Amino acid sequence: MSDLFIVKAKIKEIAGDFNVASDFSDALNEKVKADIKVAIERAKANGRRTLMAKDL
User: What mean pLDDT do residues 5-21 have?
Assistant: First the structure.
């Protein structure tokens, strides 16, 4: 896997009593990376170089 955008320990903390499969964090990381790329394109389309919550 490339860069990590998530913290595996925090996933387990939020999951509480649930087990977290090893592929879950990889899939979540890819989803976050895709969301960031979409936010970048939205900011570009609006003439900004700052990512904002509304870009999500």
Answer: 95
DSSP letter for each residue of the chain: -----S-HHHHHHHHTTS---HHHHHHHHHHHHHHHHHHHHHHHHTT-SS--GGG-
Nearest to 28 by CA among 56, 55, 1, 51: 1
Residue-range domain boundaries for the chain = 8-55
What is the per-residue pLDDT across 47-56, written as a single tens digit (0 to 9) for each? Answer: 999 999 999 9
The letter for the amino acid at 2 is S
